[in-house]
Design brief:
48% of the residues lie in helices and 0% in strands. The chain has 166 residues and is mainly α. It folds into 2 domains: 30 residues; 133 residues, no CATH class. The chain is extended and about 70 Å long. The N and C termini lie far apart (55 Å). The relative contact order is 0.10. InterPro entries: Multihaem_cyt_sf (IPR036280). Keywords: Signal.
């Protein structure tokens, strides 16, 4: 009976060690997608460890400033994240940050977090032209000039409830 206890402990330590090793390799290496603008930069708007832990708080804070107070010149805008972290494919076209293996999808899939941001916001950088002057495009919304956001009634209710609870 005593030997089976030792075997169970050893097996538990072995399994725990394997999980720890897998967890450490999951986020090893660069925090950016190769081929993105961010890959050539020394720093983001904050240190990598800070962004990993707090980016959602920064985005929520600035969402409140933008949506509730009308402040459009914000430091941590989602469109700024997409502009820097989107990479290009072999044809030179931007890949969506939510595509498999890309910047947002990789971490959010690993942490099992559903990202609702891109129901309204662009997944690729906006090619800036002189005709892109509307507030919607400055916010990274998927809109043509003068076009209003198109949410279903259910999506609008969910968004409204989420904003009110924050």
């Amino acid at each position: 009976m005593r030997s089976s206890t030792g075997i169970k402990r050893f097996a538990g330590l072995l399994v725990g060690g394997l999980f720890a090793a897998l967890a450490m390799t999951a986020h090893s290496g660069s925090a950016v997608t190769q081929g993105s603008k961010a890959a050539s930069m020394d720093a983001c708007v904050a240190l990598t460890a800070d962004m990993r832990r707090n980016h959602m708080d920064y985005l929520q804070h600035d969402r409140h400033a933008s949506v509730r107070k009308g402040i459009r010149d914000i430091k941590n805008s989602l469109s700024g994240c997409v502009d820097c972290h989107a990479s290009k494919d072999d044809q030179g076209n931007y890949k969506p940050v939510t595509a498999e293996g890309e910047f947002c999808e990789a971490c959010h899939n690993y942490t099992a977090v559903n990202v609702a941001c891109f129901q309204c916001h662009r997944k690729t950088p906006q090619e800036m032209t002189s005709s892109v002057t509307t507030g919607g495009n400055k916010l990274g919304l998927m809109l043509d000039d003068g076009e209003a956001p198109a949410l279903s009634a259910e999506e609008f209710e969910q968004l409204h409830a989420k904003i009110l609870e924050d």
